[in-house]
Specification:
single chain; about 140 residues; alpha+beta; four-stranded antiparallel sheet; three-stranded antiparallel sheet; globular
Length: about 140
Amino acid sequence: LTVSNSQRIFVSASVDSTIKIWNHNNKLVRTLVLNTIPSAITFGNHEGDILLTIKNEIRRVGYRVYLPEEYLKHMIGVQYPIEVSERPVPKSRGAKEQMSDLESTLPSGIRQNRDQVGYVSLSELKDRAHAETVK
């Protein structure tokens, strides 16, 4: 279950391979049927794009695909807050030093399994999701 405060909706994912969109009054707005079970779900931006993981891949469902027309009309002219990007890592340093800095901020359990874990920034995930929809 995840919430979009800007759209005033909730989204739930279920083992029956559905994603359900609920309004702020707990009324079911729409049901999306997938061909597999999503393992995680969240909103990717203020507009309401949904990010979900399916079989170790991140998929994006654009808000225009699932939001009813009344929600889309409400969005016209709305200005959402500008998202603050992550602090850039200086390019003058090598990748090994950058990874060491990153590892020092992670819990010890993740540091111990670093060869099994891929490190991806939130902005990179958003870029990947956008690239996926452009294809």
